[in-house]
């Protein structure tokens, strides 16, 4: 008999979550870091790199990588509205390398509001990429739906379903 890992509800269907955004020289990097920690949890490690843009102005690149459990909690903290949109658009948001992609509006996030960027805005965004844990025989979209559904259930259970959690 061959030993094969079978996906069950007990498995964590996410390897990691990457979060990337930029801040111009006139934006508050500290405010943006606070907003990201509010969403990811206070222990999240955020790397900030100071660089310059193509035209020479100051620019800060902020990056955060969350592992399994922390990534799941991040998703839960998105709240009901965002998670329902992601569930409805799962097929459109998964790439060939089994990453789930979405973007949040940065300006709204620093104000404590979590909104998905729909691509029509010419706004600064926070790019999110979730590496899904998918095994042979698993359907990648079903794994993503399960992850998002569990995150939605957790969000509601913890009282985060109707809006973002308190900072």
Please provide a written account of the structure.
This protein has 167 residues and is of the alpha+beta class. The protein has one domain (14-157): 50s Ribosomal Protein L5, Chain: A, CATH 3.30.1440. Helices cover 34% and strands 26% of the residues. It has a 5-stranded antiparallel β-sheet with strand order 2-3-1-5-4. The longest helix is centred in the C-terminal third of the chain and has 18 residues, at 140-157. Mean pLDDT is 88; it is low at 1-10.
Rg (C-alpha, Å):
17 Å
Number of strands: 5
Strand proportion, as a percent range, falls in: 25-35%
CATH class bucket? Alpha Beta
* CATH-defined architecture: 2-Layer Sandwich
What's the CATH H-level homologous superfamily? Ribosomal protein L5
Write out the strand line-up for the largest beta sheet, numbering strands in chain order: 2-3-1-5-4
Q: Report the oligomer.
A: single chain
CATH topology: 50s Ribosomal Protein L5, Chain: A
End-to-end distance: 51 Å
The backbone outline, from C-alpha atoms, is globular
The H-and-E topology, N to C, reads as EHEEHHHEHEH
Q: How does the helix and strand content classify structurally?
A: alpha+beta
Instruction: Flag low-confidence runs.
Output: 1-10
Helix content bin: 25-40%
């Amino acid at each position: 008999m061959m030993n094969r890992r079978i996906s069950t509800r007990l498995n964590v269907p996410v390897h990691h979550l990457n979060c990337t955004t930029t801040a111009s020289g006139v934006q508050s990097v500290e405010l943006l870091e606070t907003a990201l920690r509010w969403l990811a949890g206070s222990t999240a490690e955020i790397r900030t790199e100071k660089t310059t843009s193509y035209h020479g102005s100051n620019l800060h690149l902020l990056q955060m990588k969350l592992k399994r459990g922390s990534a799941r909690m991040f998703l839960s903290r998105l709240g009901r509205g965002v998670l329902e949109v992601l569930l409805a658009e799962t097929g459109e948001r998964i790439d060939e390398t089994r990453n789930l992609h979405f973007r949040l509006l940065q300006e709204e996030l620093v104000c404590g509001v979590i909104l998905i960027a729909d691509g029509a805005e010419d706004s600064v965004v926070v790019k999110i990429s979730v590496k899904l844990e998918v095994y042979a025989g698993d359907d990648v979209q079903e794994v993503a739906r399960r992850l998002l559904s569990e995150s939605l259930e957790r969000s509601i259970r913890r009282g985060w379903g109707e809006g973002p959690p308190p900072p």
